[in-house]
Amino acid sequence: MIKNIKTPTIKTGSHKVMLLKVFMDQIMHGAPVDLSFRSLSRLTDAWTEIPCSSLRPLKKNSERKYLSCSLRLSNNSITDLCDLHQTVCHFLAEPSHLAWLDLSFNKLSHIEQVLCELPGLRVLYLHGNSIYTLSEVDRLGVLPHLHSITLHGNPIEAYKTYRNRVISALPQLKTMDFGGVTQQERVLAKLWHQSNTRCRNSRKSLH
Question: What pLDDT is stored for residue 102 in this prediction?
Fold first, then answer.
């Protein structure tokens, strides 16, 4: 079962441990609705597609909706998420239970507000896109169960404050970019946030 899950190469032992936790989430949530590698440019294009089959067969309810908590839309050419809610409802029997969403290797340039409307989301893959506004990560802070995110391979990764900003905005994270978030990183992110807040307040007082 685990052999069927594609994994990136991880060099350090601690990273392997943390990535294993992500694998366990995938297994726990059942077979994903997999719509990867379909050359989709819009989410609505996925509605006529049949998900890839795997060793874990996808089950459906009486309304022909999939009994899954995971949705893969990676390696396409999707540019925006304006139809994400409708797409999730189209495929999943319980849209509010979506826990794992893979949007990696698309052409997304923003972390859109619609992602904040997925209250059960635990794992979010956004690596390999074109996201360039680091502050948009803050939006995801409203997701109470989000514990794993990937954002590497986006322009925002070039910012010196990249990792501090993400961990500060999402303090509940356990893994980021397939690596574990350490206690030291949490402390540094908190200190960075406090320093950044003081600087902003000082600038405001000058005006």
Answer: 98
